[in-house]
Amino acid sequence: MTSKTTPEQPLPVRTVLQMVGGWIGKLGTVWVEGQITELTARGGTVFLTLRDPVANVSARVTCPRGVYEATVPRPVDGARVVMHLKPDFWVNKGSFAFTALEMRPVGVGELLARLERLRQLLASEGLFKVDRKRRLPFLPGVVGLVCGRDSAAERDVLENARRRWPAVRFKVENVAVQGPYAVTEVTEALRKLDADGEVEVIVVARGGGSLEDLLPFSDESLVRAVAACRTPVVSAIGHEQDNPLLDMVADVRASTPTDAAKKVVPDVGEQLTLVRQLRDRGRRVAGGWLDRELSWLAAVRSRPALADPVREIERRAEQAEQLRDRARRSLGASLDRAEDSLGHLRARLVALSPAATLERGYAIVQRPDGEVVRRAADVAPGDELTVRFPDDRVSVRRDSAT
Fold first, then answer.
1. What letter does residue 253 receive in the DSSP assignment?
2. What is the C-alpha to C-alpha distance for residues 157 and 247, in angstroms, rounded to an integer?
3. If we measure between CA atoms, which residue out of 248, 261, 272 comes closest to residue 128?
4. HSE on the CB side for 301, CA within 13 Å?
5. CA 331 to chain centre
6. What SS3 state is found at 102?
7. What is the pLDDT of residues 167-181, one digit of tens each?
8. Which tens digit of pLDDT belongs to each residue from 44-62?
9. One Pfam family, short name please (predicted)?
10. Sign of the C-alpha dihedral computed for residues 386, 387, 391 and 392 taken in this order
């Protein structure tokens, strides 16, 4: 088309638009899934916008009223549908839109089946593992809150958190929590709060709703965005029975927005009570220990060695004196016995001594070598002998055999 035109030979607008319309008319029909928004009816035609459930992309659709009313249940804003569409181009206005030939609502069963397949996929990648979940800070300085504007969930979180800990600070990001813009806005708010260095924990809160209303919180891109956050995330979506995929990937799941406030900040009254209990327990423990030590010290001081140390010395001195006197008596008795024995031995020795015999008038005859002469026959004539008396001795010689 462009090869046949020049600045000198341009094509009229009508010709170009007719060519575009002819090209679009050759595309044929296509089945498309999306979410209905901006639904209006005028006369025999229903006008709506079919929005991509993930990306910020949409297209205008015109639907004959008969096709719309033949759909059971009849779709409303926010409903998921599958439409058989034919692309149309209006040459007069140069506008493009789809014409609906058939419309089928996406049933709850099919939605649940899709969610289950997505859940299994994300679980196989480890996004739901317990060991990757982080603990919440005990007392966060700043809490990030992602919720709907002026919503009950926002009031529940703020009021209950401040009632529990009045000093807590919040950074609130108001976003769409249902509809075609919810996924994009919630994801962007998460990334903004995660990049804020002051925010220590992020709460994503929304009140209850139908399965279709809560579908944005099971969106794959949002779930992956939560898994990629460096800041701990608390999911508080719907009520206890609601269980979007965001609950499974978040670090902490709260059953309700009120429960999220209880999990994020401690109760100042409970903490003061706990501090008081711990303080009293510490006092009891320390008091019991002191009482035991004082009792032990009193028992030690009451012992005789410490109660009257001089008395113990005196007792030991008396024992030493008794032992000394006993030793003296024992030694004296031993000496007396030895002296008596010695006297007896001396008397016996004196009685048996030759000198005593000499004192009684006897004399001892000895040869010069000291041998005692016991018989006269043993003395030959001319032998020199010594006669010993008690006080002196005399030398003699035998002259004859007589």
1. E
2. 17
3. 248
4. 6
5. 78
6. strand
7. 889 999 999 888 778
8. 889 998 887 666 778 899 8
9. Exonuc_VII_L
10. negative
